[in-house]
UniProtKB/TrEMBL annotation:
Listed EC numbers: 6.3.5.4
Glutamine amidotransferase type-2 domain sequence ranges: 2-181
Name by which UniProt lists this protein: asparagine synthase (glutamine-hydrolyzing)
Organism annotation: Plantactinospora alkalitolerans
Family statement: Belongs to the asparagine synthetase family.
The keyword Transmembrane is annotated on this UniProt entry: no
InterPro entries reported for this sequence: Asn_synth_AEB, Asn_synthase, Asn_Synthetase, AsnB_N, GATase_2_dom, Ntn_hydrolases_N, Rossmann-like_a/b/a_fold
Pathway as given in its UniProt record: Amino-acid biosynthesis
């Protein structure tokens, strides 16, 4: 995976372009550029597939078309074979070349053939038009801004801040054309609001079998590499399933876990990796070591707009720093499973139709919440993260299942536990869901700095895209899980009030002071 920047228009400004590229430098290990009078394009390339030959920006054989590409297309070998049969033999074995040749063979419809996690631009140098596309779930980011009759495109918000103009996001599953002064005219090639419109799957045995097959296939294509594959392991259900499959499918894997020394995550993950005989890298992080400096750096890297996601980023940044330091470039995570299989209480506190709308809302917004955290925290350290639970085929399958297969007998993600009952240790299968920052034991320390999040965010210029907002889940709860009310309330009053911040800070301060009081009074020594 990579990060890329592009400036299109008369007299394209090179100093601005070089600042854009510098902002993206951590996303790759090699900077590659093509600089013309009215088109400046560059890629910070993280070399994963065909590392020596997949140079970027990639150009067509006749030099007319130019591709800037971030991501992985997992079915690129099958597409390459199909292109060869059409008389379009390839010069490399890279997925980069496949993306451009597929576009030249099939036009914009080619994007529907790509199975992967991607964002890219293809510039027609003869006409000065550029085609933009983003993967169906928005795993990979893509933003644009226009200033002085020039179009600027980049993989991160921070790369567009130097432009000094409002920033817009290419929505997930959208594609379209632009030029220096008009567009992008973006349309959906996959409508996320229609996910799960196929026949319902109500039989537990059928559902379990289909889930088992789909997840195994999704992980299989994501471990097709000669590099070491890491797994971000919390010791929960989803990351455990990722590790169990990776261990079976790839000969060289390693697990990574972060948490406070006495946290649940470390305890579960240590037990699991010992049972499996998997190499385990543990990042012990004492809560007292989370200070404003660490919070500010997490906000700078992540660009996140919801408070809970920022707290999770504070935990994620040192985790991926260790992954990078050990030279691991590809990791898998269990993210996305909760949004598909009912890992949050909100889905089970409303009727079936309201639950379905909540599922779709969460899935549509993953690109700016959980997926954004993963992308920035990992590629901010030159690590490619793959999310097997968010393969479109698995997402579609999950959305065809009723809520009562996802919550049953008081247990969330019931169908997942049923599907993999023979693979999961009892202590993992029966472990209840606990959000990331809480189970790591680090949430309350990071929460101390919440009143400063918005100010830090604005200091980086990220409000050119949008402001920091209240956590949607909190707004939803206050609106009695009425989605329409919550969306309206979030738009009317995006951020928390001073009073709300004060109450939250008081709760966090009380939690952080309690351990010191116990040490001073001697209470709890026996335990």
């Amino acid at each position: 995976m990579c990060g890329f920047a592009l400036v299109l228009g008369p007299g394209a400004d090179r100093p601005t372009f070089h600042r854009m590229m510098a902002a993206l430098a951590p996303r790759g290990d090699l900077a590659e550029t093509r600089l013309d009078t009215d088109l400046l394009a560059g890629v910070q390339r993280l070399r994963i597939v065909d590392r020596e030959h997949a140079v970027q920006p990639w150009c067509s054989a006749d030099g007319r078309w130019q591709l800037c590409y971030n991501g992985e297309v997992f079915n690129h070998r099958e597409l390459a074979a199909e292109l060869d049969r059409l008389g379009r033999p390839l010069r490399t074995v890279s997925d980069t070349e496949v993306v451009l040749e597929a576009f030249l063979a099939w036009g914009p419809e080619a994007v529907t053939r790509l199975r992967g996690e991607f964002a890219f631009t293809i510039t027609d140098t003869a006409t000065g038009r550029v085609y933009l596309a983003r993967d169906p779930l928005g795993v990979k980011p893509l933003y644009w801004s226009r200033h002085l009759r020039r179009l600027h495109i980049a993989s991160e918000v921070k790369a567009l801040v130097p432009v000094g103009a409002p920033i817009s996001e290419v929505p997930p599953g959208h594609h379209g054309w632009a030029d220096a002064v008009a567009g992008p005219d973006l349309v959906p090639y996959l409508d996320l609001s229609r996910l799960g419109s196929g026949p319902r799957i109500g039989d537990p045995e059928e559902a379990a079998s289909l889930v088992r097959e789909a997840l195994a296939d999704s992980i299989r294509v994501r471990v097709d590499t000669d590099l070491t594959v890491g797994v971000i392991l919390s010791g929960g259900l989803d990351s455990t399933l990722a590790l169990l499959h990776v261990r079976q499918m790839h000969q060289d894997c390693v697990a990574f876990t972060i948490g406070a020394p006495d946290s649940e995550d470390l305890a579960y993950a240590r037990r699991l990796t010992a049972d499996l005989g998997v190499h385990h890298e543990v990042i012990e992080l004492h809560p007292r070591n989370i200070r404003l400096e660490e919070v500010r750096e997490a906000i700078r890297i992540s660009e996140l707009t919801e408070y809970g996601d920022i707290i999770n980023a504070v935990v994620s940044v040192p985790l991926f720093r260790r992954v990078r330091d050990l030279g691991v470039r590809v990791v898998l995570t269990g993210d996305g499973s909760d949004e598909l299989f009912g890992g949050y209480p909100m889905y089970h506190q409303v009727g079936p139709e309201a639950a379905r709308r909540l599922f779709l809302h969460k899935i549509r917004n993953l690109c700016r919440t959980e997926l954004q955290r993963i992308d920035r925290a990992s590629l901010g350290h030159g690590v490619e993260t793959r999310v097997p639970f968010l393969d479109p085929a698995l997402v579609e399958l999950a959305m065809r299942m009723p809520v009562d297969l996802k919550m049953r007998d008081g247990q969330e993600k019931w169908i997942l536990r049923r599907a993999f009952a023979d693979m999961l240790p009892d202590y993992i299968r029966d472990r209840p869901k606990n959000p990331m920052s809480y189970s790591s034991g680090l949430h309350e320390r990071a929460r101390l700095y919440k009143p400063l999040f918005a100010r830090q965010y604005r200091s980086f210029g990220y409000d050119l895209l949008e402001p920091v907002r209240r956590d949607f889940d909190t707004v939803l709860m206050r609106c009695d899980h009425d989605l329409d009310r919550a969306v309206a309330e979030g738009a009317a009053r995006p951020d928390y009030t001073v009073l709300e911040h004060a109450r939250d800070l008081a709760g966090a301060a009380k939690w952080n002071v309690a351990p010191a009081l116990r040490r001073l009074t001697g209470s709890g020594r026996q335990s």
